[in-house]
Prior knowledge:
There is one protein chain. This protein has 214 residues and is mainly alpha-helical. The protein has 8 helices and no strands. The protein has helices at 39-47, 51-73, 76-93, 103-121, 143-162, 165-176, 181-188, 192-209. The radius of gyration is 20 Å and the shape is elongated.
Amino acid sequence: MRNRTRPPPPHGADPSLRPAPQPVADVASDRDTPGDLDDSVLAVRASEGDEEAFAVLVRRHGGRLLALAQHLLGNRADAEDAVQDSFLSAWRRLPEFRHGASFGTWMYRIVTNRCLNTLRHRPRPLPLDVVPEPAAADADSSPPHVAEADAATAALARALMELRPELRVCWVLRELHGLHYEEIAHVVGTSEPTVRGRLFRARRALMEAMRPWR
Length: 214
């Protein structure tokens, strides 16, 4: 990553950054530290210009969002850029955040849209790092078995990247990140029946691609 993990200060040289509003009321006791607060309180504080509160949100959600971006883009450098850009966008757009959805789901949506735009405009070569690493082999596993497991993992990675982006994102959010259908529908901006249909097509395509490895 290009050393851009800290969100920009609300007052800075860049005139495009949103000025920090003055806090009007604290929503938690002064004895509470940001790390002890839930996301909704942190988001309110951050929208009032509290950089420390926003930094806690970045630390709390950054790992999952980076994993999501890497699953979608297949390239760690691109994933890091997408997540950093998404946090910068979120910092500026915090007044738009509606607390009906969780902050995490809101960030999933921002990152997903950023990644889909990247995929539409800059097609990437097929990667080998878009799925989690296989579990460590037992000491008794034979080298042929280990090699076969590695080959199957690479095959799944290729099959996943061959899916259309709208199918891939639903599969990743459901199977790798455990989101419910309603959450996925909110993230991708569609209906639950559409999400279920996309998941059905994605699973069918992946099952067909992995048939030789059964």
